[in-house]
Amino acid sequence: MPIRDKLLQAVARYDLLDPHDRVLVGVSGGQDSLALLLLLHELAPDLQIELVVAHLHHGLRGEAADADQQYVGDLAARLGLPFATDRTDVAALAEGEKIGIEEAGRRARYRFFDRAADGHGCHKIALAHTATDRAETLLMHLFRGAGLQGLRAIPPRRGRIIRPLILVTRQETGEYCRITNTEVRLDSTNLDPAPLRNRLRADLLPQLEREYGPGIEGALCRAAEHALAEIEWTEPLVEQALAGARQGQGLSLERLREMPRGLRHRVLRRFLHEAGHPLVDVAQERWEALEALVEAGGTGRRLELSPGPGVELVYGVLAVAEPAAETEADEGAVRLCVPGRVELPGGRAMVATVAAAPTEHYPPAEANCAVLDADRAGEVLLVRRARPGDRFVPLGMSGQKKLQDFFVDNKVPSRQRRPWLVTREDGEILWIVGHRLAAAARVQGGTKRLLTLSLGEL
């Protein structure tokens, strides 16, 4: 099947694009991303989409990286497409977040793509992962003892991120670039044998194809498809089980123990993911320790899963516990202009949007999202950590209450007593993120504009 038809097949099978979508296309200058850009540009009139080209300079490889950035920018200009670019110091990011260069580059790219998509009004972010990447990822996950989530490897779609080349092999993108006389930029870091993916690409997969017959790559991708299909039809069951297990800001141990082990594992993964935990860093023995913690129960017991939030048991509830280092820090207040977005320490971001008020009653805050009266909240907000002595008027009450007393009354674990707060510019607390709205800017019958605040990952 021609590469063009495979892309269209992926778009239809996974519902990747809609008419009038504005699509940010991540382009490194390598053969996969160039093939993606040129194919989408060719198909844009038929698909009724608009494209924006995006390229991130990683601050590595010196003049070669400068040339890559220039090349992609020139190509975007020749195609008559908007070009979004930025430069970051990936090495410094790796050192600051105590992660490897490869993971730092991945995080930097996704953060850049999100910023660029927001800035250019893009509905989708198209990345050039191929079937070959999917097969390599499945092998990597197998070597790490992955469960069902890991066996799906690279999903064709995650939120607004889409992968239109997920049915296309790397060999096919190379052939496409050859027959279209497209100059391909080469990244020397892909030749470094240290990263596991590079070794799989250069050695293991070719060896499997030679010694065990052609088609191994396709077989791995089919296995990933089967895992994806299982996840999709069982996902509503996981959501239902998670909702049934929720108790306050945590999960009921009693409900967790009633679940089959496989369902419980997926519920725990979803719960930790929503709390912002980097699940990719959790080793198998930590998952087993978490299972043992759930079975054993108790109060005050804590488990560190990886760098980042841990979990602890409080009054029969499994709750997320902030890392000690974060709870001891005082980052100060960050200004948030409304509407707008600010990045917060710890890889989080607060987003503020404004819309006309609906006629029906609007619900109060839930978890990491809150709705307030935009006019009473003000045009500039402050986002900061809770501090000793903080007071607020909880929604539904008329008098002030110490934040510490509020936490005690609601049995909030001590390690979770420094959540993010949103205040007016004058310091009046509007929202205890993840816990309670204040009365100060609550939505009322006369509210004309709604302010929606959401805390999420970068």
Description:
By secondary structure, the chain is α+β, with helices and mostly antiparallel strands. Helix content is 43%, strand content 21%. The protein has helices spanning 3-13, 31-47, 62-79, 90-97, 101-119, 131-143, 148-151, 170-179, 196-211, 216-245, 253-258, 261-274, 284-296, 324-328, 374-377, 403-409, and strands spanning 22-26, 50-57, 83-87, 124-126, 157-158, 161-162, 246-247, 250-252, 302-303, 310-314, 317-321, 334-337, 340-344, 348-356, 369-373, 380-385, 391-392, 401-402, 420-424, 429-432, 436-437, 449-457. The strands form 5 sheets. It has a 6-stranded mixed sheet, sandwiched between helices. α3 (62-79) links the parallel β2 and β3 (83-87). α6 packs across α10 and α10 (216-245) crosses α12 (261-274). The two termini are 38 Å apart.
- Rg over CA atoms: 24 Å
How many strands in all?
Answer: 22
- Portion of residues within helices: 40-55%
| Strand content range | 15-25%
The major beta sheet can be summarized as: 6 strands, mixed
Overall morphology: globular
Low-confidence stretches: 324-330
Helical/strand content category: alpha+beta
What integer is the average pLDDT? 86
Number of helices: 16
Give the terminus-to-terminus CA distance.
38 Å
Physical arrangement of strands within the biggest beta sheet: 3-2-1-4-6-5
Helix and strand arrangement:
Elements: H1 3-13, E1 22-26, H2 31-47, E2 50-57, H3 62-79, E3 83-87, H4 90-97, H5 101-119, E4 124-126, H6 131-143, H7 148-151, E5 157-158, E6 161-162, H8 170-179, H9 196-211, H10 216-245, E7 246-247, E8 250-252, H11 253-258, H12 261-274, H13 284-296, E9 302-303, E10 310-314, E11 317-321, H14 324-328, E12 334-337, E13 340-344, E14 348-356, E15 369-373, H15 374-377, E16 380-385, E17 391-392, E18 401-402, H16 403-409, E19 420-424, E20 429-432, E21 436-437, E22 449-457
